[in-house]
Amino acid sequence: MSDALFRGWLLAWIVWSAVPVGALVLTLIHAVTGGRWGEVLAPALRPAITLVPLVALTFLGVVPGLEAAFPWAAGTGAQPDVLRYYLDPALFGARAAVTLVGWSVLAFLCLTGRCGKLAAGLGLSFYGLTISLVAVDWILSVEPGFNSSAFPADVALHQILAALAFAALASPPSLDARGASDLAGLMLAALLGVIYLELMSYIVAWYGDLPPKAAWYLKRGESPWSAVLVASLVIGGVLPFFALLFATVRKSPALLRGVGLLVLVGIAGHFAWLVLPAYGAGAGPAAMAALFLLAGLTLLSSLAGRILARRTRRLRHV
């Protein structure tokens, strides 16, 4: 039972953290490129960025159940040299700490207006390096035999897409048709990027026909995971894609909220398809419970932030 709880927490954390991290990446990109789109998305992205330190703190829930979530933590599932020089609990913790602390620092710089073009460029470089490591650590290493060079980019695009979908879902009533159209265009581009990487990764694995990769995909092609894959593809990919082709949808904040919700559900299903087949029964319900808990922590954090902001403003007026 405890193993299922830790495994569920890992999956829920991966799903929940996608929005804050993606919001941070989009804000860094805007700091480098500029553009009206960043101003349009800021009311939704900035509150999400405030959660990045909470993302770092809640990762601590994974640490006590490391052996339950990752077979290599118990010294099995990978080659001895891989276990010694990469998939080592101490090295895993060090990579996670550097990544999460670094992301939190970048979030602080963005929120305090201290992130200029140079800092944002360096921050994006840091993100690119760290996501290349932790995407493997946190997701692929639940089954160490499988690897994909495109996987970190795929995870990064999912995080960006999740942040855009959240921005659509949480868009303010003041969002005009032009701003909605900008957001829809970004969502469509990110969605196409995700679909392209997923499809090409599968084609390369199919063409190579290597036993470890074939076994990984075959496990996820069995019931019920094949149904999860199809559902996440239809809900989070096909329906949003065709919806965003219509100008009426692209210019309507209300309709974009529906599209954003579909995309977020699809992303959650996709991450579940990646992780859950490696575990036994029980991890799925545990992940749902953990996701509700993380949502509750998000609300409490948001409420505490608002109270602190009000008190700070009052002190300034004194």
What features would you describe in this structure?
The chain crosses the membrane at residues 6-29, 49-70, 90-111, 118-139, 151-171, 183-205, 225-247, 259-280, 286-309. Keywords: Membrane, Transmembrane, Transmembrane helix. The protein has a single domain, classed as Formate dehydrogenase/DMSO reductase fold (Up-down Bundle), CATH 1.20.1630. It contains 14 helices and no strands. It is an all-alpha fold and 318 residues long.
Mean pLDDT: 91
Structural class determined from secondary elements: mainly alpha
Strand count: 0
How much strand content do the residues show? under 5%
Brief write-up:
By secondary structure, the chain is mainly alpha-helical. It is 79% helix and 0% strand.
Provide the fold topology:
Elements: H1 2-33, H2 36-49, H3 52-58, H4 66-69, H5 80-85, H6 89-111, H7 117-138, H8 151-169, H9 177-208, H10 211-220, H11 225-243, H12 247-250, H13 253-275, H14 283-317
Helix pairs in contact: 1-2, 1-6, 1-7, 1-8, 1-14, 2-8, 2-9, 3-6, 6-7, 7-8, 8-9, 8-13, 11-13
Question: What are the salient characteristics of this protein?
Answer:
single chain; 318 residues; mainly alpha; Formate dehydrogenase/DMSO reductase fold; 14 helices
